[in-house]
Amino acid sequence: MFSSIVVGTDGSPSAALAVRQAAELARACGASVHLVSAFKSVSSINALSAEAMVAGASSVDARRLSDELGQNAEQVVAQLADELRATGVKVEAHTAPGDPAQVLIDVAEGEQADLIIVGNKGMSGSKRFVLGSVPNKLSHHAPCAVLIAATG
């Protein structure tokens, strides 16, 4: 059925639910899991910093902030990878700067994934009729099947 599953995480409780569902499916199918965490790049931080400076905020060291976000992303996926490995799931961890949906798509393409799992956080109330930005982008551009897990 599935041999390679990509799932994104930002370390939030909602994302942890999607990761848990990916792990359960991977165990059932004998699939491997690719844990993915995206973080803001230097260029996106520079753009936000410029907007903040116009509004009167002090400058931001974009390179340092991006490095810190990258280190945090690496810690998040490393910890989750260790937890999944302890349950017998084959796991690879991936981190990259950029738009979360695009990073998930890039990993799915690179790993020839069969499935991407993403949470539905932010899809309640009237928003439930319009997918969140990451699920929406994935539903239109993913190179494989997309499962939108009930996480919030």
| Main sheet strand line-up | 3-2-1-4-5
Indicate the proportion of strand residues. Answer: 15-25%
CATH class: Alpha Beta
Percent helix among the residues? 40-55%
- The count of β-strands is 5
Shape: globular
Main sheet: strands, sense, barrel: 5 strands, parallel
| CATH topology (fold) name | Rossmann fold
Known CATH architecture? 3-Layer(aba) Sandwich
- Cα gyration radius (Å): 16 Å
CATH H-level superfamily: HUPs
Q: What's the mean pLDDT score?
A: 84
Q: Would you tell me the structural class of the helices and strands? A: alpha/beta
Termini, distance in Å? 27 Å
- SSE pattern: EHEHHEHEHE
Number of domains: 1
Q: Which spans have pLDDT < 50 for at least 5 consecutive residues?
A: 123-131
Number of helices: 5
Key words describing this protein structure:
5 helices; alpha/beta
Write structural notes for this entry:
By secondary structure, the chain is an alpha/beta fold. The chain has a single domain (4-41, 75-149), classed as HUPs (Rossmann fold), CATH 3.40.50. The chain is 49% helix and 20% strand. It contains five helices and five strands; from the N terminus they run βαβααβαβαβ. It has helices at 13-29, 42-54, 62-86, 100-110, 133-141; strands at 4-8, 32-39, 90-97, 115-119, 145-149. Strands 3-2-1-4-5 form a five-stranded parallel beta sheet, sandwiched between helices. Helix 2 (42-54) packs across helix 3 and helix 4 (100-110) runs parallel beside helix 5 (133-141). The radius of gyration is 16 Å and the shape is globular. 35% of the residues are buried.
